[in-house]
């Protein structure tokens, strides 16, 4: 029975914030803004998934990630599908996902160079509770004023197509080569197969579930890890206390209990759901 509380790594970003989220210490007012908190385990080999919080005050770059084949061809362990669970958003917050219509890669390149890519991508209003699964190849940009939890394949590989004139490196050739510049079509609609269990995303690279007040035993297939991410509430997992704002890596199995109400995410690297909480 094992569950391990992951340590946090704070990542400064030009689009980050000074006021983060309950449970996370704000950076000093004269310090660099923090955009991401990563949950990791220094003692393990890179596990398949990575969980992060993102805190945005400005738009992220308009970007794209390679799929497994393209990433491996350039020496990386895997490509990057990612999913976002929106925790909070300003009334006018948006996320760009896909393009407004199909465009050629040549047009995408020209638009990235002259900035018209901002109008080419599809900025959708977002509100708390929404979830997006963005497969590799999707041209996207998370907008301003958003707090979200991201679950992604574990690789730090972003090809920036456009950065609004910020002085950061772009990766136009690599990015255009792996982009699918077309309108985004969700591959799944969230389902609640049982009271308290909602499937937010179901493959192809991971399953993401949202549980209300979970109690029982998490049972994972041999050798597989799972990520337990409490959004609210308290309880214990494998005999240790958990609280909101943490992330636990579960191996094999672990008993979980909730004190009263709670809201948690659970992610595991399979293409389809399994009966994980018994
Ligand atoms: O290049 P930027 O704008 O800092 O964005 C990179 C970030 O965007 C994301 O891919 C989210 O879309 C994060 O996982 C990643 O760290």
What's the number of helices?
4
Class inferred from helices and paired strands: mainly beta
Q: Which CATH class of the largest domain is shown?
A: Mainly Beta
CATH architecture of the largest domain: Sandwich
CATH homologous superfamily assignment of the largest domain: Jelly Rolls
Beginning-to-end CA distance, first to last residue: 14 Å
Rg from Cα: 19 Å
The CATH topology name of the largest domain reads Jelly Rolls
The overall strand count is 22
What share of the residues does DSSP label as strand, in percent? 35-45%
What spatial form do the alpha-carbon principal axes imply?
globular
Hetero groups: 6-O-phosphono-beta-D-fructofuranose
- The residue fraction in helices comes out at under 10%
Biggest sheet, open or closed, and with what strands and sense? Answer: 7 strands, antiparallel
- Helix-strand pattern, N to C? EEEEEHEEHHEEEEEHEEEEEEEEEE
Which strand order spans the largest sheet, edge to edge or round the barrel?
Answer: 1-20-17-22-15-14-13
Mean pLDDT: 96
What's the number of domains? 2
Q: List unreliable stretches of 5+ residues.
A: none
Organism: Sphingomonas colocasiae
Keywords: Isomerase, Metal-binding, Zinc
GO molecular function: isomerase activity
Protein name: Class I mannose-6-phosphate isomerase
């Amino acid at each position: 029975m094992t569950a391990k509380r992951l340590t946090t790594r704070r990542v400064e970003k030009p689009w980050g914030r000074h006021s983060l989220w309950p449970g996370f210490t704000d950076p000093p007012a004269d310090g660099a803004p923090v955009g991401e908190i990563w949950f990791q385990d220094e003692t393990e080999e890179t596990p398949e998934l990575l969980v992060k919080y993102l805190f945005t005050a400005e738009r992220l770059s308009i970007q794209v990630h390679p799929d497994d084949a393209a990433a491996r061809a350039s020496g990386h362990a895997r490509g990057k599908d990612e999913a976002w669970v929106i925790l909070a958003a300003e009334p006018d917050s948006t996320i760009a996902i896909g393009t407004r219509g199909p465009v050629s890669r040549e047009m995408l390149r020209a638009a990235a160079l002259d900035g018209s890519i901002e109008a080419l991508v599809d900025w959708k209003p977002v509100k708390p509770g929404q979830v997006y699964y963005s497969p590799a190849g999707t041209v996207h940009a998370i907008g301003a004023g958003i707090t979200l939890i991201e679950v992604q394949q574990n690789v730090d590989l972003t090809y920036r197509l456009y950065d609004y004139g910020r002085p950061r490196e772009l990766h136009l050739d690599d990015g255009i080569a792996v982009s699918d510049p077309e309108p985004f079509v969700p591959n799944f609609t969230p389902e609640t197969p049982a009271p308290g269990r909602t499937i937010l995303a179901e493959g192809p690279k991971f399953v993401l579930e949202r549980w209300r007040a979970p109690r029982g035993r998490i049972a994972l297939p041999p050798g597989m890890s799972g990520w337990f991410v409490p959004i609210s509430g308290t309880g214990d997992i494998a005999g240790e206390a958990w609280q909101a704002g943490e992330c636990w890596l579960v191996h094999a199995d672990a008993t979980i209990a909730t004190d009263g109400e709670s809201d948690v995410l659970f992610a595991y690297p399979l293409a389809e759901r399994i009966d994980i909480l018994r």
